[in-house]
Specification:
- The complex is a heterotetramer of chains A (about 325), B (about 500), C (about 230) and D (about 750).
- By secondary structure, chain A is mostly helical.
- Chain A has helices spanning about 1-35, 45-55, 65-85, 100-120, 125-155, 160-170, 175-195, 210-215, 220-245, 260-285, 295-315, and one strand spanning about 60.
- The two termini of chain A are about 40 Å apart.
- By secondary structure, chain D is mainly alpha-helical.
- Chain D contains 26 helices and 5 strands.
- Helices cover about 70% and strands about 5% of the residues of chain D.
- The chains are: A mainly alpha (about 325), B mainly alpha (about 500), C mainly alpha (about 230), D mainly alpha (about 750).
- Chains A and D meet through helix 2, strand 1, helix 3, helix 4 and helix 5 of A and helix 17, helix 18, helix 23, strand 3 and helix 24 of D.
Chain lengths: ~325, ~500, ~230, ~750
Amino acid sequence: MTSLIGLATLLLHVALMLALAPLLVGFIRTIKARVLGRVGPPVVQPWRDLLRLARKQPVVAENASWLFHAAPAAGFAATLAAAALVPGFALGMTTAPLADLLVIAGLLALARCLLALAGLDIGTAFGGIGASREMTFAAFAEPAMMLVIFTLGLLMGTTNLDAIALVLREVTVGLRVSLGLALVAIVAVAIAENSRLPVDNPASHLELTMVHEAMVLEYSGRHLALIEATAALKLLLWMTLIATIFAPFGTATPESGPLVWLFALPLWAVKVGALAVVLALFESAIAKMRVFRVPEFLGIAVLLGLLAAVFLFVSQGIA
Amino acid sequence: MNELRIIIGMLRELFSLPGLVVVVPLATAAWLSFVTDARRGAWINAGAATLAFLLACALPWEPTTGTLLLVEPLAAHMAILTSFIGMSTAWFSRDYIAVEATEGRLDPMRLRDYHALFQTYLGFMLLALLSNNVPGTWGSIEAATIASVLVVGLPRTAAAVEASWKQLLICGVGISMAFFGTTLLYLAAVPVLGSGLPAMSWSQLPAAAPAFPAAMLNLAFVFMLLGYGTKAGLVPLHAWMPDAHAEGPTPVSAVLSGSILNVALFVILRLRGLLDANPDAIAPGPPIMALGLASVLLASFSLWPRRDVKRFFAFSTIEQSGVAAFAFGLGGAAATFAGLLHLTLHTLTKAAVFQCVGRAVQLKGGQNFTDIGGLLVRHRALGLTLAAGIVAVAGLPPFGLFASEFLVLLATVRELPWLVAPLALGLVVGGWALAMRLISLCLGPPTPDRGAAPGWIALVPAWVHLAVVLVLGLAMPGRVAAWFAAIAEAAP
Amino acid sequence: MMGGLQPGFGAIGYDLAHLLGGAVLVLSFALLYQRRLTAVINIYAMQSWVLAAAAAWQGWVQSSAELYVAALIALGVKGLAIPLALHRIVRRLHIHRAVETALGIFPSMAVGVALVALAIMVVLPTTMQTQVLTREDLSLALSVVLLGHLMMITRRTALTQVIGFMSIENGLILGAVGVQGMPLVVELSVAVLVMVGAVVFGVFFFRIRENFQSLDDSHLDQVGGAHR
Amino acid sequence: MPRAGRFRQRRADCISWWCETVPALCAVPGAIALSPVILTGFALVVAALLGLGAASAVVHHHIPAGATRRRAAAAAALASRRIAALGSLGVCGLGFLLVLTYLLAGAGTATITLPLGLPGLGVPGLGVAGGNLLDGTRYDGGITLALDGLSGFFLLLLMAAGAAASAAALDGPGDTDATAPFLPVFLAAMALTLLAGDAFALVLGFELMSLASFALILTHHDDATVRAAALLYIGMAALGAACLIPALALLADGAGWDLRFAAIRALPPEGWRATLVFVLALVGAGSKAGLAPLHVWLPPAHAAAPAHVSALMSGAMTKVALYLLVRVLFDLCGPAQPVWWGVPLLVLGAGGAVLGGLRANLENDIKALLACSTVENIGLIVIGLGVALAARGADLSTLAALALGGALLHALAHGLFKSLLFIAAGAVQHGAGTRLLVRLGGLIHRMPVTTVCVLVGAASLAGLPPSAGFAGEWTLFQAVLGGPRIGNLGLQILICVVAALMALAAALAAAAAVRLVGVAFLGRPRSPRAAAADEAGPRTRDALTGLAVALAVVGLFPGAVLSLAEPVLRRLVSAGLDDRAGLLEVAAQAGMPGYSAAGIALLGALAAGLVLWLVRTLTTPGHRDAPAWDGGFGAPPPWLPFGDPLTQYGGASFAQPLRRALGGALLQADEIVDMPAPGETRPARITVELSDPAAWWLFRPVAELRARLSAFADAIQFLTIRRTLSLMFTVLVLFLAVVALMEQL
């Protein structure tokens, strides 16, 4: 029975993630427009763009290799697999035993490396710039992410996201300095990973300021659609992740049965929406920083993560 | 009159088997000094050396203790080793010298001198090893020294003359110290053994040593250690050795680095036995170890800036002799075994190396490292042999010096662990320098040839040496191992 | 054998031996003191005569034939032949007549005294058991050896170094003949002589003047280690 | 020795063998008859390899004289290489099957003694007391071979890498003929080291390994940089031996001068002795494994050697050094060792990992790049060993088992993928004529098979799921995550920092992998030679594919690999992973969900299927080819067939952000920009200088000290005769004075 529920949860979760990701992007754009005093596009605009792009026939450089053709789909698949591991509105999905935080980070890294390779494949300057910067930022984001995982792992005794979420949901670990610091660190990492301001400007179309966009400059048509979808899915994934870890209340469990979903689903939407609003306000409040400032930005995240772990040692002698 | 009887007894001994080992080379020397034909001289030289070696091989089965000669395992072993080196070098020098003659570096008269002196040197070395009385050993070592001085001076170049003069003075002083030590040793023995020959015979000293007046024994030890240490090329008494090796004819370098060093260390080993036996004498180990360690360190660092091939290997000889001395100083059967093995294997290896080097020098017409390079490229056999020799000297497997150095380190850890640090440092620095020169000699772009390329015949002695080193190091036959062990356990 | 004389002060055997030994030592100091080459050679000859006398006296005391032979050798070869040869060399090679010193005369004398003290200090405890005769002779011989060595290293010219070497050798013989019934004395002294002969021969043969390369500091400073 | 003696010798051997084996075997049913047979088999393998070396050398040097001497020589050289490579391929394949059966059968222990070995241990004071040398009732130093789980596990790697390397050697370029005979010798030496059952055999194999690899590095000795690299390498080897021999001697000293490991195990060292052994073993093995800061020799040596040799050196030899470390620290030193032993390993490992990862991003020669990543991976493995040591010291045997298991798993994975990548580098050099990133590019079009295999290897290098590299790093990180349980705040914080550095190193490795693949294999060719590159030869392709398949297997079933290591873990840290490492899943703690590579792969496949279905349904198929848009630059002019090479991102430009961010701090990297004044026609140039901190802080000072000491030695010994005599005289007076003093006292 629970296995069936788990399966159902998984399917619904995946479907929702796929469906809502573009809407989330649209929502954020709308908020930002409103904050800037513009009306802005409708929320479903990203969906429209995706479908339009999908219908278009891609134009591919002659010297593109099979990797260039395969990368968008593969990257999207990896991100989707990761998304299937992050519990959203309900815990105990079929994939729960696999949902190791390191694995999730690994899958996202896989997607990133694929895109970076694709960016280098045509041999243009901008693809190279984008790939090189993307990998550099990742190099600094990884340690911070790892320290956050370290803290959570120490606290919960496991790195399995589902288990962590369950513990956080059931047991009241109380307000901990460690978790607060970890939250800040992971937010910084999330900003870098999703190439949002101030690390990267998703809306920019001036090549020199692009990181992620520069990488995919050669893509068009359905390939571009897949890449946009990947970005959107990744954003939703991260927000869900943060929500699941730091706002675990109200998520459904396998025992609680489908009825609880009626509360859990809106609650999840609200959490993600709130995070989206915060992100939008934050992004419209600050400007993009220089590329070589980013390592410092992420270095601070690393230090915060370190502090989180250290505070943990101080607060409870792990033995 | 008893003096006369003693003399007659000695004469009779001279014609027993051990005596013949000594007499053959000396008689040949006398004969050779009248042979002007170089080719015949070379053949006679080689033949006599071979005969001496064959006779020496019979020594282990002929333990003798006479007034003149003493054959005990250690002496027999050393004699076999020395005569073997003598033999293979004689065969090697047969066509080496021929080349020298054709190149016009040596005229027939010099060649005659060379062969006569070679046999003289060999004979006195063997006598020094087999002689049963202390002054006898001293005298023959002195004679051998003079012979070697004259050989070193044979190429009448200024450098050679300078080298031999240096060797003459320094070894002379060393010899005089050794003489004084001999007198003192006799003085120490007189109260126990009474005046007369017995107080001078190696065979009787060990038994009586415990009763010797300790202070006199100490004094004797100091003088003899420094005296014979000079011959062993122990730092800081080594100054003559590099020049003599570098300037003399190559076969002489091979023999020098082989025999005279062994003989000197052999005497030092016997002395150590005497002092060990005496309860109130100073401990002989520390001074010997100090000299040995100084040699290892100084020589290993001196290897790096060398520009002259033969001088380079002379320093490596000093280093290895230091290792052996250090092992002998450590004491204990294990260390003695290690030192003995090291001495034997190094003698064989270094002789092989010098033979190859001599060839390379003839081939390239210069003995600076800048003259010799890339031997492997055009002269593969020579290059490979030289490379193998250097690898062996550097103490790398599969050659025997690896095993002996392993044993020395083992024994050091056992006796005085903290001394491993300087010893190992010396070995590493030295080995590294050897590797550097291995690369620069055998590899890289070849330098132009200025002389005749040696045939493979010329390398056979070196191959034999290396083969022996290989076998003795890794697969020593049970009998030989037992023989070595017996020597080490019986060694003073 | 003791030749029926009881050791100790007052015994004529002891006194004379002691006296001769002392004379040899004094002559070594004289060698150190001399500044002129010819004089150095002459003093060396004198030392050899005294040595010969000491050997003969010991021969009489120990009534051993060998020692007489040794004395004869010392007198003949070292007292006459070698000095003459050296004079000849000096004339032949036009060697500069003055002795170049590396260490001043007085300092070297002082060092010499210190060395004698050292010799006595070393020898004294060693010979408690053995005969007094030997004890004194031994310390004298050792002093002579050390002084000879000192002369070798404080004099620059080859010839003086050779003479220093030979005075070392005189010390050796002095020690050897002083020892009770030491066998092979003759053989040994001959052997030593061969050595000395070789050295002198070397000087003569290699035409070694005071400015022979390897003996000249300034030269060797250029031919430093880096070139070896 | 007499016949009776030989008989007694043999009987003694049999008895000792029985005592060694049977109890262990009874514990592991099914291996009773097996292990001695396998061990004998491996003795034969070593012998066969040595024989191959000799045979190929003979063939090589037996050149028939005649008119066509040159051609005959070339033929002989080729034949010798064929013999060496084919032979070692066969022998290694056989050995692989042998060791696989052994491990599957439960890895019992066995020991045999060979009749040859170190002479003279019969002398009292060395060797076991009692008995007599003449009749062999005494251990006279014959080489002892021993086989157990640890040796078996590393032999598995060695045989796999050896087979691949020999296959690659088969159709390598002809210029590797000269040193072909040393290839089997190298393999034999490594096998001997792994099989060694006593101290002498261990050092013998280790040094023989150094010598053979030294010769192999010198294959292209006409190049000065090669010679310099070889010199540095052999010097480090000498240093390693000089540290190892005393370490083992100390161990034997504790065990009554029995050099055999069995005896040493019985009496492990304690106190200062143990500490000394620890330090010496760390330096001795670390210098060979490329553990920072002793890694300086590694990049030049790997770059200098022929590709298949660097594959062996990086894939197998460094692992042999790690085996040595494990053997000494975990096995011979016994379990009762302090916690702090882990700390130096953690520090050095983390430092090496980051340094190697960073340098891998800055190197321009792909082989140097791979070598640096070796330094990085060795660092990760050593971190695992450090955690294992510390945990064992604190009696957390389950944690120790996890850490050690992770280290072994990652060692295996790294051995496989690094061999693959080096062999591929060789193929690139052979096919595209260069190893420099600035001259490569676009190889994916010319060398498809190689590129696919390289992608598999690079995935492991970057530690991306579900590759073998990810499995290893996952296990290692789980072990580090458990580290704080060892206690002691200082250690906890250290482990925390180490975790962050591990992550940094992993991300740097990922960047390096992307740089390697993206610059060398993707993009536009940067030189005509690269544009016309040839695919690797057939044997090389086979080797690459084989390694790729092996990597896939290890990556998908890490639990199975760990179960092969089970006996080792049980022996060394007295706890296993069988409760945590199943066929499909590896977990950090028993009963908790862990990492299931197969599951992830399945999930990924499903996701990919879904995506493909979506693409099919929602989008219009097909695409249109056009010149690269390149931000509007348009098509390159016809006289630049590959487009303007300067507009393409290259290795140096890709590394620039990392160089600016970290290089300055860690590698004293500085960029010298030469900017022409306006109006000048010459191009602007930017040159980058790097220097490894280890070279800066450690090696240069040591070299200077050596030079100064040599100068000093010359100054005190090349004197005039007079001064030399004064020196002797001083020594004499000194000795006399000492004697006098001693007698006064």
